[in-house]
Specification:
Layout lengths: L2 E7 L2 E6 L3 E2 L4 E2 L9 E5 L2 E6 L2 H14 L6 H14 L5 E8 L2 E8 L2 E5 L1 E5 L1 H14 L6 H14 L11 E11 L6 E7 L2 E5 L5 E6 L2 E6 L8 E8 L7 E5 L4 E5 L8 E3 L4 H12 L3 E6 L6 E5 L7
Helix pairs in contact: 1-2, 3-4
Length: 309
């Protein structure tokens, strides 16, 4: 299964999701073989899904093909509802949009399409765990979207359910980075949030296919099984995409723009080497953190022409 939680808070959209793939016929316990569950289709539109990945792929490809010409909002909702029915209501969707009139969430679940202020799809036990911590944290003087992120992280790392896992992916409303050319005024867009996790005492190993056979990647560092995960994201008004960088393993899983369902694996590269490579190959500036060798610290890095000399 999975877990995706989406909310409208203070007229902004916030989404938390995982990347684990499970189902009736498949369970991908290898984190590098997961999928992004919150797909930014356009700067102001994000599609989330839970259930059979096949129906998400059909929806994603349909939008990308139609968007080359035009695609009506209601037509796409009807397409998602049709896929929901075709999956015997086992694949659910959330469509998040920043309209000129304000943010919208459309939940397609349990045979209905509903406009809502808050939605979740996926594993119920994991959502209950999230909800417990989200409501408890609201007693503290912390902004709701920060509470939401922390509560999801607790549910995400909980041992109560094996339905949620992989990496935590966050989408938020950025009100500052995109600028209207004519007026020089900022306008809101949806973007992936960068982030990092440095965790000790919980070693784990990933694998990937190399030369036609699986190869193990120990992703822990020397400090008692510590491991480092970082999300690299595009900045400014660049197309939405992200990369999951495993610092000690020196490998990154890159999800390119307009192809967010298909990760590309880069190995034997530090974070700096990786962001340089992405800029050279695709002219995209990625930003994020990488670990500092020999320490428990980290540093912020940005790709770009000035770093590729």
């Amino acid at each position: 299964m999975t877990l995706v939680v989406a909310k409208i808070l203070d007229q902004k959209i916030y989404i938390e999701s995982d990347t684990k793939i499970t189902g009736h016929s498949i369970v991908r316990n290898d984190d590098l073989k997961g999928n992004i569950k919150a797909l930014i289709l356009e700067p102001r539109l994000c599609l989330c899904y839970a259930g059979n990945v096949h129906f998400a792929e059909v929806a994603y490809i349909h939008f990308m093909e139609k968007s080359k010409t035009t695609i009506a909002w209601n037509d796409f909702i009807q397409h998602l509802f049709k896929l929901h029915q075709e999956s015997n209501q086992e694949t659910d969707f959330i469509l998040a949009c920043l309209e000129s009139s304000g943010p919208l969430l459309i939940e397609i679940k349990d045979g209905k399409a509903t406009q809502t202020q808050s939605s979740w799809i996926g594993d119920k036990d994991s959502f209950n765990e999230f909800q417990k911590h989200f409501l408890a944290d609201r007693l503290n003087e912390v902004e709701d979207h920060i509470q939401m992120h922390k509560a999801f992280e607790i549910a995400f790392r909980s041992d109560r359910s094996d339905a949620v896992g992989g990496f935590q992916i966050s989408v938020y409303t950025d009100t500052k980075s995109a600028i209207v050319t004519e007026t020089k005024e900022p306008y809101p867009i949806l973007r992936y949030k960068d982030g990092t996790s440095l965790i000790s005492g919980r070693p784990k190993t990933l694998s990937f296919e190399g030369k036609n056979q699986p190869s193990a990647i120990p992703i822990e560092g020397a400090s008692e099984g510590a491991y480092f995960e970082s999300l690299f994201v595009t900045t400014g008004d660049s197309p939405a995409c992200l990369a999951i960088h495993l610092g000690y393993a020196k490998c990154s899983l890159f999800f390119p723009p307009a192809d967010l369902l298909n990760g590309e694996l880069y190995t034997d590269m530090t974070g700096e080497e990786f962001v340089k490579e992405i800029y050279v190959q695709k002219k995209l500036k990625l930003a994020g953190f990488q670990p500092m060798p020999g320490t428990m610290g980290m540093k912020f890095i940005v790709g770009g022409a000035e770093n590729c000399a």
